[in-house]
Design a protein that fits this description.
This protein has 241 residues and is α+β, with helices and mostly antiparallel strands. Helix content is 49%, strand content 13%. The protein has two domains: 86 residues, Winged helix-like DNA-binding domain superfamily/Winged helix DNA-binding domain (Arc Repressor Mutant, subunit A); 132 residues, Muramoyl-pentapeptide Carboxypeptidase, domain 2.
């Protein structure tokens, strides 16, 4: 059989768990499933007001469901002004993305590229490698935040952290937000970097950078800190804000 047409290897237990967590986070709520299906049938996408009217929801509730789908990458968000050209705040229109709807997508990773990234970072002095990994993660996090909430004002810290956790789950981290006294932690129970993270723990700085980047776009500047890491033998990865 041609190598290019060979079936993908089965998901590992960790990948499967992360994939299920990602899909459950986005579609575990029956109303959210119905909203997704409704949006999928609308060629021009939907607004929160349209969804609120269609499902008899408060506009804030409708917006929450749509933002949850956006955090998972299942809908794309764009700003649009009213046809009348009024100077009011533009509304957000949500369109179903082309993201594959299967269990493999959220947790699949290109093992070769991840391995090469780990080896490339290993060639640098540790401090420089960590700074570079965090910078890469931060830039990606900022782009995610822009996709999730274009043109929005600042969210509360709690709302922003929960949105970051949703986005992490969609990327295979099986994450959730957890209050810890005066701080909030993002707890990731899975790691999409797999064995590479254990061989090159510096790659975990990418996670911290993603948190910093997304929070910069959704909330404001922050100084997230890694307090535990699966790559270092801990049960979970925890990033405290």
């Amino acid at each position: 059989m041609d190598r290019l047409s060979a079936p993908a290897p089965p998901l590992s237990d960790e990948e499967f768990s992360a994939a299920v967590a990602a899909v459950t986070s986005a579609f575990g709520d029956p109303t959210r499933r119905e909203i997704y299906l409704y949006a999928r049938d609308q060629e021009k996408g939907v607004t929160a007001s349209e969804v609120a009217q269609r499902f008899e929801l408060h506009p804030n509730v409708a917006r929450h469901h749509l933002d949850k789908l956006a955090a998972g990458g299942y809908v794309d968000v764009a700003l649009e002004r009213s046809e009348s050209g009024s100077a009011g705040r533009p509304s957000k229109r949500y369109r179903v993305s082309e993201k594959q709807m299967d269990l493999e997508f959220p947790a699949r990773r290109d093992d070769l590229l991840v391995t090469l990234l780990g080896r490339a970072l290993a060639l640098l002095p540790p401090a420089e490698a960590e700074a570079m990994a965090e910078q890469v993660g931060e830039e990606y996090g900022r782009s995610l935040a822009l996709h999730m909430s274009p043109g929005d004002g600042q969210r509360s810290r709690e709302s922003a952290v929960h949105a970051v956790a949703d986005a992490f789950t969609a990327h295979g981290f099986a994450a959730h937000a957890e209050a810890r006294g005066a701080t909030i932690a993002i707890i990731a129970e899975q790691c999409p970097f797999g064995v590479t993270a254990h061989e090159h723990p510096v790659i975990c700085a990418v996670d911290r950078g993603m948190v910093r980047g997304m929070l910069a776009g959704l909330y404001g500047d922050s100084a997230p800190a890694t307090t535990s890491s699966r790559a270092q033998g801990d049960d979970v990865c925890a990033t405290v804000i």
